[in-house]
Design a protein that fits this description.
This protein is an alpha/beta fold and 374 residues long. It folds into two domains: 2-270, TIM Barrel (Alpha-Beta Barrel), CATH 3.20.20; 281-369, no CATH class. The protein contains 15 helices and 16 strands. Helix 6 (124-134) packs across helix 7, helix 7 packs parallel to helix 8 and helix 14 (329-355) runs antiparallel to helix 15.
């Protein structure tokens, strides 16, 4: 399924073959939590924005409209009119971040909906059943995304339980695939362990033995420093299978992506480009701008003169700023379009640099540049 085409240091240029098309890696997955990108961007738009994979969320879609409803309508691909790959997050992160009251036990987690307080139970089998109903291309294993500030002893117990949950996920998905909408749904395992090197390494060694289609690094970008995150990647990835894609969950800034690729990561996702766009924080090839600043009030240039997105081809900074200031929905849409295109173009540029053997040169220029605030 996964073929490495070129390497430079630990960075990899690859292809991941799925039932819904081939993904060129490294790739940034666009986050459509509830089967839509926040900001009024449709699945049709995403193709123009160079999106290869859309990420949707098990927890949110289970609550609304209900995974049974999505299954009745033929699965997420038909529901949202998207014929390219879809990855569904297991819901674990949301259970542990949104549910104010929850109880963890071996079977799974009991919690209350953040919408209406309804009591819900979710464990490995429930997460797999929901994701099977959603019929995504890639299903993520149900795990505990623990607070990185918790003591080491807690992480030992948590990771051991997550390992047992992963085995249950694998068994259940294999059973479900026999009669599912998508009989080729793939399971990615998730490495956890906070900022503890030995727990991370041992966990990766164990889950690698399950020979899953892909592996993710979870529980990072949740409060630790960038240097701590990079260190965890440095010590953990040497124990991840070489011939399987590696996914860094919830990351991150353009600089994080470049540095992640340098360490051997293939897949990324983050709400940052769409969320920041809705507040006027826009990424450009020269750094980050706040379009709400007064200096852009009469600026007739595009958001990024080097960008070919629909927004930059057709509208000025002054116009986008005006729309956002006026609270017009179009302002959010144009800003989100730009940021998503920027991220997808960034990973395309990374792939080209790897193909041409100049990734390290690209990294030296753009890793610091793209984090600069203008």
């Amino acid at each position: 399924m996964f073929k490495i085409l070129k390497t430079e240091g630990r960075a990899r240029r690859g292809e991941f073959h799925t039932p819904h098309g081939t993904v060129q890696t490294p790739v940034f997955m666009n986050v459509g939590t509830s089967a839509a990108i926040k900001g009024g961007v449709s699945s049709v738009d995403l193709k123009d924005l160079k999106c290869q994979v859309e990420l949707c969320n098990t927890y949110h879609l289970h609550l609304r409209p209900g995974d049974g409803v999505v299954a009745e309508l033929g699965g997420l691909h038909k529901f949202m009119n998207w014929d390219r790959p879809i990855l569904t997050d297991s819901g674990g992160f949301q259970v542990f971040s949104l549910a104010s009251i929850r109880k963890i036990k071996e079977e799974g987690v009991s919690f209350q909906s953040h919408i209406d307080g309804q009591k819900i139970f979710m464990g490995p089998e429930e997460s797999m059943r929901i994701q099977s109903n959603l019929a995504s291309t890639i299903a993520m294993a149900f795990d505990e995304c623990a607070d990185s500030t918790l003591p080491k002893e807690y992480f030992k117990e948590s990771v051991a339980r997550t390992e047992r949950w992963l085995e249950r996920c694998k068994t259940e998905l294999a059973r479900l695939n026999k009669t599912a909408i998508n009989k080729e749904q793939m399971l990615f395992g998730i490495n956890q362990g906070g900022v503890y090197d030995d727990i991370r390494i041992e966990n990766m060694k164990k889950i690698a033995k399950l020979d899953l289609p892909g592996y993710a690094i979870g529980g990072l970008a949740v409060g630790e420093t960038a240097e701590e995150m990079y260190h965890i990647l440095d010590v953990t990835l040497p124990f991840a299978p070489e011939n399987k894609p590696r996914y860094l969950m919830g990351v991150g800034t353009p600089t994080n992506i470049i540095e992640g690729v340098a360490r051997g990561i293939d897949f990324f996702d983050c709400v940052m480009p769409s969320r920041n766009a809705r507040h006027g924080h826009l990424f450009t090839s020269n750094g980050i701008i706040n379009i709400m600043n007064l200096k852009y009030q009469t600026d007739t240039s595009p958001i990024d003169p080097n960008c070919s997105c629909p927004t930059c081809r057709n509208h000025s900074r002054a116009y986008v700023r005006h729309l956002l200031k006026a609270g017009e929905m179009l302002g959010m849409r144009l800003a989100v379009i730009h940021n998503l295109y920027f991220y997808n173009q960034l990973t395309e540029n990374i792939r080209t640099a790897l193909e041409e053997g100049r990734f390290e040169e690209f990294r030296k220029i753009y890793s610091p540049l793209l984090s600069k605030r203008i």
